């Protein structure tokens, strides 16, 4: 975390930061929060900022980010803020028991204690149930932050006992700023990737993925054929696309990339006050319809060939 955590949260979640500053100022933090965000790195950073805010030596309504405790929390060097992550595919009951044993004692450096559970949807039923008493009969100085990418996968018994917080999607500008740290990416490439995802973590992963970078160039060639009404756009499906997209996830990504290219063209047309906006909007609708066909298990080749035919004529 090279930037000060407080500043990152201010940029990425300004509304939630403002809300929690009010909660903190009135000393109304509840004991259990279920925090949902698409980017687990950003979600974890938000939980760390909340932890800083609870322990900060200076601020009354959020973290100062500069005191010794704020810096130690940001550097994962504060014993009263503990994090649990999955052990393999799940979070096991033994992990919870071990944490509970340390939490029944007073905080090591203060009376407050914070437990952060990353990917909490991966808790086994027994692990989740072992926390219920903690949530139902909380120590007033203990807080638990359950972090998840999908709140619907959390057991109802946990959901009903927590205050739910939904992080807003990270703005495209923030994602672009993150990608611009990679000098190998052009401005056009950063815009394309930022349009494709709503997570800094996913954006960086894609930018470094060899298959994705090759596929992006291939799909852009397909887009150029289709956009110019070149009949090679139909042949291109069997010659290239089918060969590079064996996995279902790759097939969806190819359609999503094509959608991004048309959206960026539409954006450019709007900025230049173009006269063919309806044509681009129709193309986008056809691609989204094709994506639904792929979701319904129509073969990838058939979906793409039908789409190419529709976009060409």
Description:
- The chain is an alpha/beta fold.
- The chain is 58% helix and 8% strand.
- The protein is built from 16 helices and 5 strands.
- The protein has a 5-stranded parallel beta sheet with strand order 2-3-4-1-5, with helices on both faces.
- Helix 5 (93-103) links the parallel strand 2 and strand 3.
- Helix 9 (172-179) packs across helix 10, helix 12 runs antiparallel to helix 13 (232-244) and helix 14 (248-271) packs antiparallel against helix 15 (277-295).
- It is elongated and about 70 Å long.
- The mean pLDDT is 89.
Protein traits:
313 residues; five-stranded parallel β-sheet; 16 helices; 5 strands; 58% helix; 8% strand
Compact description:
With 313 residues, the protein is of the alpha/beta class. It has helices at 5-12, 14-25, 40-55, 68-74, 93-103, 125-129, 132-136, 156-159, 172-179, 187-196, 200-207, 210-227, 232-244, 248-271, 277-295, 300-312, and strands spanning 32-36, 81-84, 113-117, 142-148, 163-166. The chain has a five-stranded parallel sheet, sandwiched between helices.
